[in-house]
Amino acid sequence: MRAIRFSHAALLTLLCAPAYALPAATPVTPELVQAAEKEGAVNFYTSVDVEVAEKVKKAFEGKYPRIKVAVERNGAQRQFQRLAQEYASRIFNADVVKSADAAHFVVWKRQGWLAAFVPEDVAKHYASEHVDPDGLFATWKGSLCVVAYNSKFVTPSEAPKSYGRPPRPEMARAHREGASLL
Predict the structure, then answer these.
(1) How many domains does the chain have?
(2) Residues 114 and 168 occupy one common structural domain
(3) In terms of residue numbers, what domain contains 23?
(4) Which residues of 58-79 are buried (b: 16+ CB within 10 A; e: fewer)?
């Protein structure tokens, strides 16, 4: 399989990567900026909130006004499916990808779809535990998932202790759907 080729403009917009024995950081040189300006556009596939994606776009375009960012916002699973369909069709539109599901990057790495790139800021400021050792991806945003229950309906002794099987059969639907019916 062929790895996705990241454009020069995409390399400028990657917001992720550093630490163990990562590839050397890639400086943003005038030559890199000129090459990106020649391409003129970056496709940013993301599952982050639209407002956040638009702020990233605005900040990037403010710094590099000759490079336009096209934000393709979708849920993480739809984005994952879209990339798989595009890749199967040999369509390589995505330049930069931000997924809410870290497992997607593990799959894309295994499939050889990612290219190493370590921005200087990432190499300087990211802790190594937030970066793939090969410099293929890094944590940009984290979300906390908690096990919670409604004490009016569930006693502490029968409250979920993990994301495993729910303690009572009638809790199964809420548990499957991540709902707060417990």
Answers:
(1) 2
(2) no
(3) 8-130
(4) eebeeebeebebeeebeebeeb
Q: What is the pLDDT of residues 10-37, one digit of tens each?
A: 444 454 433 356 677 888 899 989 999 9
Beta-strand relationship, 96-98 and 68-73: unpaired
The three-state secondary structure class of 178 is coil
Q: Cα(104)–Cα(110) distance, rounded to whole angstroms?
A: 10
User: Cβ(146)–Cβ(138) under 8 Å?
Assistant: no
100 found inside a domain: yes
pTM score, two decimals?
A: 0.67
Beta strands 41-46 and 96-98 are parallel
Report the CATH number at residue 36: 3.40.190
Summarised one tens digit per residue, pLDDT across range 58-106 is 999 999 999 999 999 998 899 999 999 999 999 999 999 998 888 899 9
102 and 171 housed in the same domain: no
Q: Residue 66: what residue type? A: R
16: exposed, middle or buried (Cβ count in 10 Å: 0-12, 13-18, 19+): buried
